[in-house]
Specification:
This protein has 653 residues and is of the alpha/beta class. It is 15% helix and 33% strand.
Length: 653
């Protein structure tokens, strides 16, 4: 090989050696001396090394950095305003009793692969008014690591900066857990490179952040912390309440959940004093505070408690809020839009007017059948006693049938207890609040609010109306109430007794109404009206209305009791067939005619319904006049021959 070739080869080897040396600079430990300008991170003499373009930590390798006092025990303020090409392995800021200040600003990013420790009385600022904000990125993924540690006497100032945890979770080893410093953040981002671990605040402490993002690979066990801006869970990310308390103090939409939210027994509070949207999801405990409206963004569920305080408004909007097994406490206002509803368990029972459970109702005692429903979610305005949205009806049927519409009214301000009822009466009546029934009654109640789908069964009850008969003995039969959704309905069904009587004979005696007793009751009602306050309660008015209706019924009974001479011209003209099960004015005329003969129709009830007692009366009438007998077709029906005889006896004469 020629001399010339050796010279060229030597030049190549020299250049390669220099390049290799520059590329394999080993990590070093840098200690601050402040012997340069005393402030600038990139000024080499401040680190006790010579000047040069890369003569500072993090320029060409991931170094360890220790910052204490400057030479001469001067407390320095250091500015890192340029992103470090290689970042750091670790950073220790300060020493016991020493308080240097490090400002990361001008958009610079400081990466630390293991730990950043702020100790003593030192201060780490991610930005200031002069240099603007910077970014701190923490990459430690070792299980149990605390990438950022802030001493009890140290200060951490975030300004409008971002702190990002980028842990690889110990290289993907399962069970890893990274601890986040419990402090105040502005933007806190969790962006790990694996999903095998979780992030948790140190000691589950009270941390605060303005904004937070949980990326697609992160699971954050929240415990207790406050978000004053917006928390965003990206698709694939997980926010777990783990029995803590998450507070959203920001307005607008402070919680954007595109991933997974696990309530896990925790409490979520929306506390802004301005209008706020509530994220769709399942909560354990949901609490609203602040004098502003909190509005659902979609179908929402609460499994344990829902609390609306006195200064707050919960807007259900057009969505469904399911709180079936939750304790619902409303001291403010709840509103619903078209299609919006609350699903919450109700409890119902038969009671008296005061709400005391009652198992037997008697017309002779002047009883009214009350349905009491307990459901705190029906209390929409805590400042006033309300009525249930929808209707409630009480029905009775056996030989006669009656349906009465009642209103369920809240018993007081924000009690969540609603009550309404109708009075039992064994005579035809069109007066409101009166339930017609005859003999033994079976009471059943179906409460349906126009929103819900839950059901419940209250205690059973029995009832007895004064004028039983037509095959029924004096008995009391059980009644049940079912609570469900859509419209409130209470049903009392009168049936012929088929069970062993449980009411004594003395209880079936019918009180005889006279003009004297009616006059006494009228005087009593007048006295009660005179004693009413200026603004009487709904309950007081309903009670007086029921008494007046009862008096009118007694007057009807006195009038009906006046006998009509048999064969007297009643002006009836029976032209159509009448049979069991028919309800018609002609049936009333038939009963009016038959009652003139006590041997045929001793009950003398005029109801307009062709029931079992009317059937027996027709059969007796047919037997008496030789029209039909048992086994003969038409026995018990009002056919041509029977109508002819009726017209002869009770038509125009």
């Amino acid at each position: 090989m020629s001399r010339k070739h050796f010279i060229v080869l030597g030049l190549f080897l020299a250049v390669g050696f220099l390049f290799l040396s520059a590329s394999t600079v080993k990590a070093a430990t840098y200690t601050w001396t402040g012997d340069g300008d005393g402030h600038t991170w990139t000024d080499g003499p401040n680190w006790g090394v010579g000047s040069g373009p890369n003569a500072y930590p993090g320029a060409t390798s991931t170094d360890d950095v220790i910052i204490g006092l400057s030479t001469g025990n001067v407390v320095p303020t250091i500015y890192a305003t340029t992103s470090l090409g290689f970042g750091l392995t670790s950073l220790t800021l300060g020493d016991a009793g020493k308080g240097p200040v490090l400002v990361i600003g001008n958009g610079a990013t400081l990466n630390a692969s293991t730990t950043v420790m702020v100790v003593g009385t030192s201060t780490l600022k991610l930005g200031d008014a002069t240099w603007g904000s910077g970014t701190l990125r923490l990459g430690n993924g070792a299980s149990g690591a605390t990438p950022l540690s802030i001493g009890s006497s140290a200060t951490f100032v975030t300004s409008t900066s971002t702190v990002t945890y980028t842990a690889a979770f110990n290289g993907g080893a399962p069970g890893s857990s990274i601890f986040i410093a419990t402090t105040t953040y502005y933007n806190l981002n969790l962006t790990p490179t694996s999903t095998t671990g979780t992030f948790t605040f140190v000691n589950n402490g009270n941390a605060t952040t303005t904004n937070m993002t949980i990326s697609s690979a992160a699971q954050f066990n929240a415990a207790t912390f406050v978000v004053s801006g917006t928390l965003t869970v990206n698709s694939g990310g997980v926010l777990d309440g783990v029995g803590g308390n998450i507070t959203f103090s920001g307005s607008g939409t402070p919680f954007v959940n595109n991933g997974t939210f696990k309530a896990d027994g925790g409490t979520v509070q929306y506390t802004s004093a301005s209008a706020t949207n509530i994220a769709t999801g399942t909560y354990a405990n949901l609490e609203l505070t602040g004098a502003a409206t909190k509005t659902l963004l979609g179908a929402t569920t609460a499994t344990s408690t829902v609390t609306v305080p006195s200064d707050a408004t919960l807007a259900i909007s057009t969505f469904t809020f399911t709180a079936t097994g939750a304790t619902w406490t409303n001291s403010g206002i709840v509103t619903e839009g078209t299609g919006g509803k609350i699903v919450h368990a109700s409890a119902s029972a038969f009671t008296d007017s005061s709400g005391t459970a009652k198992s037997f109702f008697s017309e002779n005692n002047g009883d009214s059948v009350y349905l009491t429903v307990t459901d705190t979610s029906l209390n929409f305005d805590a400042s006033t006693a309300e009525s249930v949205t929808g209707t409630a009806t009480i029905s009775a049927s056996s030989d006669t049938s009656s349906t009465e519409t009642i209103t369920l009214t809240e018993t007081g301000i924000k009690t969540g207890i609603f009550r309404g009822g109708a009075r039992l009466a064994s005579i035809s009546s069109n007066f409101p609040g009166i339930l017609e029934c005859f003999g033994s009654v079976t009471l059943s109640a179906l409460f349906t609010d126009s929103q819900e789908t839950d059901t419940s069964t209250p205690s059973s009850a029995t009832g007895l109306c004064a004028n039983g008969g037509g095959g029924g003995g004096s008995s009391a039969v059980a009644a049940t109430t079912v609570t469900t959704a859509t419209t409130a309905t209470t049903t009392a069904t009168t049936t012929a007794a088929t069970t062993t009587p449980v009411v004594t004979a003395t209880s079936t005696a019918t009180a005889v109404s006279t003009l004297e007793t009616v006059q006494t009751k009228v005087a009593s009602v007048i006295a009660k009206i005179a004693a009413l306050p200026t603004n009487p309660t709904t309950s007081d008015l309903a009670s007086i209305q029921a008494e007046i209706a009862a008096i009118l019924i007694e007057l009807q009974s006195i009038q009906a009791a006046q006998p009509t001479p048999q064969g007297v011209a009643l002006g009836f003209n029976f032209v159509r067939p009448l049979a069991l099960g028919l309800r018609h004015a002609d049936v009333s005329n038939l009963q009016q005619a038959l009652k003139t003969d006590s041997s045929v129709y001793p009950e003398g009830l005029v109801t307009g319904y062709f029931g079992s007692m009317t059937l027996k009366a027709v059969q007796k009438f047919q037997g008496k006049y030789g029209i039909a007998s048992p086994g003969v077709p038409g026995y018990g029906n009002v056919g041509p021959a029977t109508r002819a005889k009726l017209n002869a006896l009770y038509g125009s004469k």
